[in-house]
Amino acid sequence: MPETVTKTEYKPFTMTKKQLASEEFAFVNGNKSVMIERIADGRIPGSYLLKGYVESKERKGTYFQVDIVISDSKHNSIPWSNCTCTSAHYRSNPCHHALRMRDVFLANRNNMLKAVMRR
Ligand SMILES: [Zn+2]
Fold first, then answer.
1. Ligand 1 centroid vs 86 CA: distance in angstroms?
2. What H or E segment, with its residue span, contains residue 63?
3. Helices and strands in the chain: count of H runs, count of E runs
4. Within 1-119, where are the H helices?
5. Is the CA virtual torsion 4, 57, 92, 26 positive or negative?
6. Which residues contact 22 (CB under 8 A, 6 or more apart)?
7. Is the Cβ–Cβ distance between 81 and 94 less than 8 Å?
8. What is the CB neighbour count within 10 angstroms for residue 45?
9. How big is the CA angle at 114 (ends 64 and 104), to the nearest 5 degrees?
10. 84 Cβ partners below 8 Å, 6+ apart?
11. Mind listing the pLDDT tens digit for each residue in 12-66?
12. CA 73–ligand 1 middle distance (angstroms)
């Protein structure tokens, strides 16, 4: 079947490093590729909700808005994620920005958990 040309292309929402410079973050990793705005206890016991920004690999200095839920009790799985990148828009699996945010959480777990906002 021929490809349709009328399909509207998804335009990913991004922020620049400059735009994010004035924001306050609960956690920023060493190379500033992952900036966490908020860490909260998730609705399911033993889960955490992380909201923040993850830098694009292809376009340095450009960030996607990423929200993930990490399940501590289920081997750090990601039961829910949302990202403004194109991949997340078209696929249901967590995109690599969601995975990257999860990995940064796991690598900096103790510091991150100090910043958890208890509801
Ligand atoms: Zn993404």
1. 7
2. strand 62-71
3. 4, 6
4. 17-20, 86-90, 96-107, 109-114
5. negative
6. none
7. yes
8. 9
9. 35
10. 12, 13, 14, 64, 65, 66
11. 999 999 999 999 999 999 999 999 999 999 988 889 999 999 999 999 999 999 9
12. 24
| Ligand 1 center from residue 22 Cα (angstroms) | 23
Q: How far apart are CA 69 and CA 72, in angstroms?
A: 9
In our burial notation (b when 16+ CB lie closer than 10 A, e otherwise), range 1-37 reads eeeeeeeeeeebebbeeeebeeeeebbbbeeebbbbb
| β partners of residue 70 | 48
Q: What is the DSSP letter of 35?
A: E
**What confidence tier does 113 reach under pLDDT thresholds 50, 70, 90?**
confident
Place of tokens 């376009």: 59
**Span from the CA of 88 to the centroid of ligand 1 (angstroms):** 5
How far is the C-alpha of 54 from the C-alpha of 27, rounded, in Å?
12
SS3 call for 106: helix
